[in-house]
């Protein structure tokens, strides 16, 4: 039985405070930071980074930890998630521009970002092909795109073996549970989705096999 239906904004509004509490912890933040390792090598100092589905802000703020000069813009369509993100931004003094919008209709000009990321985001979206089209449109030619998504493979119990505090294990257990009700990707499915719009696509396992990182570049440089 499907408990959750993806694409329902109220669900994210309702979960915003809890999700912010659960993910504002060092292991989750370190993991968000590690997305920077997949960014293309030739980035300007003030790289423009778009974080799709920024939620309570943890992913965007963590990227800034690694790239303090970057201009990070976070998009989310949940006003409650963005309110929680504003709270974390105030607390940390981090500078992230927050924009309330649907990722399938981004309010940005073509080629206006160096990198587009999505951490735990694409699997929640009904129109994944539309979001990929928009991600590619706003990327400059040669710009990089990185998505971290739940993996269909991997053991249900893998989260127990992951190093980290109880709150991190809780976040991973819920991620596994919720993604099972919504969507998880096989590596070839995530690759296929990225290859619709991007070149040099590769997909790797992460989080003890619970997650997949998909990386690609916009054609044309
Ligand atoms: C699981 S949270 C991930 C938050 C953050 N990236 C992280 O990893 O901590 C996914 C976020 O995507 C947002 N979202 C889902 N579908 C969206 C859409 N079509 N457009 C914009 N945001 C969306 C939700 O509101 C939610 O805040």
Provide structural commentary.
- The chain is an alpha/beta fold.
- It has one domain: Vaccinia Virus protein VP39 (Rossmann fold, 3-Layer(aba) Sandwich).
- It has 8 helices and 7 strands, in the order ααβαβαββαβαααββ.
- It has a 7-stranded mixed beta sheet with strand order 3-2-1-4-5-7-6, sandwiched between helices.
- The site of S-adenosylmethionine has 20 residues, from helix 1, helix 3 and strand 2.
- What portion of the residues fall into strands of 2 or more residues? 15-25%
- Helix residue percentage: 25-40%
Biggest sheet features: 7 strands, mixed
Q: What is the H/E order?
A: HHEHEHEEHEHHHEE
Strand order of the largest sheet: 3-2-1-4-5-7-6
Please give the alpha-carbon distance between the first and last residues.
46 Å
**In terms of per-residue confidence, which ranges show pLDDT below 50 for 5 or more consecutive residues?**
none
How many domains, in number, for the residues? 1
The number of helical runs is 8
CATH architecture: 3-Layer(aba) Sandwich
Give the helix/strand class. alpha/beta
Determine the CATH superfamily. Answer: Vaccinia Virus protein VP39
Q: Provide mean pLDDT, rounded.
A: 92
Which ions, cofactors or small ligands are bound in this entry?
A: S-adenosylmethionine
Extended strand count: 7
What is the third-level CATH name, the topology? Answer: Rossmann fold
Q: Given this structure, which CATH class is correct?
A: Alpha Beta
Q: Whole-number radius of gyration?
A: 16 Å
Give the overall form.
globular
């Amino acid at each position: 039985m499907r408990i959750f239906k993806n694409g329902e904004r109220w669900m994210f509004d309702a979960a915003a405070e809890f999700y912010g509490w659960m993910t504002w912890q060092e292991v989750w933040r370190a993991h968000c930071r590690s997305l920077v390792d997949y960014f293309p090598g030739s980035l300007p100092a003030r790289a423009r980074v778009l974080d799709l589905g920024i939620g309570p802000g943890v992913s965007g703020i963590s990227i800034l930890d690694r790239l303090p000069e970057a201009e990070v813009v976070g998009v989310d369509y949940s006003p409650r998630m963005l309110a929680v993100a504003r709270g974390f931004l105030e607390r940390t003094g981090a500078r992230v521009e927050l924009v309330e919008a649907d990722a399938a209709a981004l309010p940005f000009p073509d080629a206006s970002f160096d990198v587009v990321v999505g951490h735990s985001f694409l699997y929640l979206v009904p129109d994944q092909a539309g979001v990929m089209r928009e991600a590619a449109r706003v990327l400059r030619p040669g710009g990089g795109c990185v998505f971290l998504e739940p993996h269909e493979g991997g053991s249900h119990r893998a989260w127990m073996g992951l190093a980290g505090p109880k709150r991190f294990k809780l976040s991973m257990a819920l991620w596994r549970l919720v993604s099972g009700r919504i969507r998880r990707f096989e590596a070839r499915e995530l690759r296929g989705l990225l290859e619709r719009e991007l070149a040099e696509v590769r997909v790797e396992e992460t989080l003890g096999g619970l997650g997949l990182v998909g990386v690609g570049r916009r054609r044309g440089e």
